[in-house]
Amino acid sequence: MNRIDFITSLLKGYDTVLDIGADHGLVIKKAIDLGYIKNGIAADINKGPLNHAKKNLTGYPVRFYLSDGFKKIDADYDLAVITGMGSRLIIDILKHAKLDRTYILGANEKVEILRSWLVSNNYEIIDEYIIYDGFYYVFLKVKKGQMNLSDSDLYVGPILKNKVEATQYFKHKKDHFLSLLNKVHGKKYDEFHTIYTYFNEVLKK
């Protein structure tokens, strides 16, 4: 399953879904076509992608917003999708989100930074997913709540660590940090060795 189809599958059972950084609008289009959702909201910070989404979603029950994240969005939604960007950008966007909604988050890198921020900002991870589509993509489903994560959990994921489908991803990460150990010294070596240990230990379970 490719990334677009997988994200679409996570939208089942929601009424109105907001896609931040909607780009081409294909996630909303497929979700409506499949009857997963009733309405969509497509938002993008750039006119080009938003116009592309408008063309793809002509005739669909979708509202469009030229907006930096949530800042100009006044429509209500049950679920918001924020994927295809870095952890720090997702965090900046979430600072303006409604706390009492559900979110699908897909960070392209440093997901541990995102998990750490969620802990400190009244969010709870209710599920985690992994797919490979030319690259390993990790998705978090989060909502308002409280959680405590260990340092290891920030990297391997408190839910993902118990999923068999994450095994190859963990092997990939372990090998990546093992290769880095041959290139660094001092504090960086200690840091990477610790992270390597997290992935190595989860593979032993």
Q: Would you identify the regions where 5 or more consecutive residues have pLDDT less than 50?
A: none
- Tell me the number of strands: 7
Estimated share of beta-strand residues: 15-25%
CATH superfamily of the largest domain: Vaccinia Virus protein VP39
- Tally of DSSP helical segments: 8
Helix content range: 25-40%
Assembly type of the chains comes to: single chain
Protein described:
The structure is a single chain. The chain is α/β, with parallel strands linked by helices. It has two domains: 3-149, Vaccinia Virus protein VP39 (Rossmann fold, 3-Layer(aba) Sandwich), CATH 3.40.50; 163-205. Helix content is 40%, strand content 23%. The protein has eight helices and seven strands; from the N terminus they run H-E-H-E-H-E-E-H-E-H-E-E-H-H-H. Strands 3-2-1-4-5-7-6 form a seven-stranded mixed beta sheet, sandwiched between helices. A hairpin with a 3-residue loop joins strand 6 and strand 7 (136-144). Helix 7 packs antiparallel against helix 8. The mean pLDDT is 95.
